[in-house]
Design brief:
Length: 368
């Protein structure tokens, strides 16, 4: 197939409530949506880069520049036989989130042209995927306990609690005391360092957590390995894994026991599937995290989470968990902790073009 037209848009979306992690909080998102078109079909994707370079050096603005200056002009008019083989501007170093937007839109486009669901094209096996929820850092333990109680009542199968130094051990102890059987995990977003924070990290072993996610810097593979040797709780890597090479290094060093695979973070589906296969062969379970995506990005994540190695609940919450109104129909809604996988062609949900156009603050169109 030859990509005849590409459209990149930016639109703001307001979160229902502020979401805070160890590196800061946000109340709104500047979403980048990409559309690739050919032969009457349109493939959609979402760039997951954030507004600030806290989670990654990539931001909404750097991704816009890379997409509009380099990736899309390089793509237009090219023949693409198989989305699996698409490597956007392989000479361009880094910027996996921008590259992922191009690659994942091509997967959606190919699935629609072949009248397949994205799940089918990826080789997924599940028709429903288990769902967890992420809770940002709360001002008080009482507020956190109310959130945990609410989400357990709604049926979520994993409760992820954001932590940072000073809001960790006592807070987790209070949650575990109130919910002794709840499937809990902690997520530090690289907030800790060794050796200084070894004591609070190892103290988390007493809370029977499913895992602790990304406790140390994204570059600290050796320190993560040292920490994992000291902890019974599995260490899960997130920001550290930006490519299959990173996953190979982590597996070799024993830098954890679990990997959170976000396709937008690792450069797209081809890299995500390579990491999935590597982890499955190495006996490491994986799950799919979230980046406060709209329904477009969520649809891609749900499809990826149908692969057989995704045995742990992902952060693929209901649309209404974050947005008063999503930009796709139907919106995502789980039942009994399971998210149905859309079965229509491609991502299986329909972007609401009227709402998207009304919200768009900048837009560029590329035609071959």
């Amino acid at each position: 197939m030859k990509i005849a037209r590409a459209v990149v848009r930016e639109l703001p979306l307001e979160l229902k409530e502020s979401f805070e992690i160890s590196s800061g909080g946000t109340k709104s998102r500047r979403i980048l949506l990409l559309t690739l078109e050919t032969d009457g079909f349109a493939g959609w994707s979402e760039c997951v880069a954030g507004e600030r370079p806290g989670y990654s050096y990539e931001t909404t603005d750097t991704a816009w520049h890379i997409l509009t200056r380099w990736l899309l002009p390089d793509l237009l008019g090219r023949e693409v036989d198989d989305a699996r083989e698409l490597r956007p501007a392989p000479w361009l170093r880094g910027h996996p989130m921008a590259k992922a937007a191009v690659e994942m839109a091509a997967w959606d486009l190919e699935a629609k042209r072949r009248d397949l669901s994205l799940r089918e094209l990826l080789g997924g096996v599940s028709e429903k995927v288990p769902v967890g929820v992420s809770i940002g850092i709360q001002k008080t333990d009482a507020a956190l306990l109310r959130k945990v109680e609410q989400y357990l009542a709604e049926g979520y199968r994993k409760i992820k609690i954001k932590t940072r130094p000073g809001r960790d051990v006592d807070m987790l102890q209070a949650v575990r005391a109130s919910f002794p059987e709840a499937p809990l995990m902690a997520d530090a977003n690289s907030a800790y360092r060794l050796p200084g924070d070894l004591e609070p990290l190892t103290a988390m072993d007493e809370f029977d957590l499913m895992m602790i996610e990304q406790p140390l810097s994204h570059e600290d593979y050796m320190d993560h390995a040292a920490l994992q040797r000291r902890m019974a709780t599995p260490v899960c890597l997130d920001e550290s894994i930006r490519s299959p090479g990173d996953a190979r290094l982590a597996l070799h060093l024993g830098s954890g026991r679990i990997i959170n695979i976000k396709p937008g973070r690792v450069g797209g589906f081809a890299s995500a599937m390579a990491i999935h296969d590597m982890c499955r062969a190495g006996g490491w379970p994986v799950w799919c995290g979230g980046m406060l995506e709209s329904g477009v990005g969520r649809a891609h994540n749900v499809a990826l989470a149908t692969l057989p190695g995704f045995t742990l609940p992902g952060d693929i919450s209901n649309s209404r968990r974050y947005w008063a109104e999503d930009i796709v129909v139907p919106e995502f809604e789980m039942t009994d902790g399971l998210m149905p996988v859309p079965e229509g062609p491609g991502i299986g949900v329909t972007p609401r073009r009227d709402r998207i156009e009304a919200l768009t603050t900048r837009k560029l169109v590329f035609e071959s």
